[in-house]
Amino acid sequence: MSDIRTKLEKRFDRPGGYIECSDGWDWILEELHEKLVFLDRKYTILQVKEKFGTLRFYLGEGGKTKNVAVLLMHDAIRYAEDMSAHTCELCGNCSLVGYSERGIEYDKTVGLKFSEYGWRRTLCDTCAKDLGYRASREDD
Ligand SMILES: [Zn+2]
Question: Could you tell me the pTM of the whole model?
């Protein structure tokens, strides 16, 4: 398991909580964790998962941080969730140019893809092909 997953899983309010998304988004979680620790070093997590193709990150009870810090934490979470819509959940490739400087390859093929049964995931073309996902369904 990656370092960031080990770190985050210690922060769940509920014992046994785990990160319910693939590890392509680990670098997004790493960056988010750095911001959240800065704002509330005792922050806790209720749930982290993939839903309808993007990241969902729910804070727990935390360190009772108040005021502007809480607003900034929610801004940081929204930014991470938005970033997940441009980042392959399997390999971490990102379609936003600025993120190539992180050593993550710029890949403009990343986007929402659909399985034969309509399941949605954010994938690059290479990973989508491996899983049998396509850019859109014929009946969309
Ligand atoms: Zn990929």
Answer: 0.89
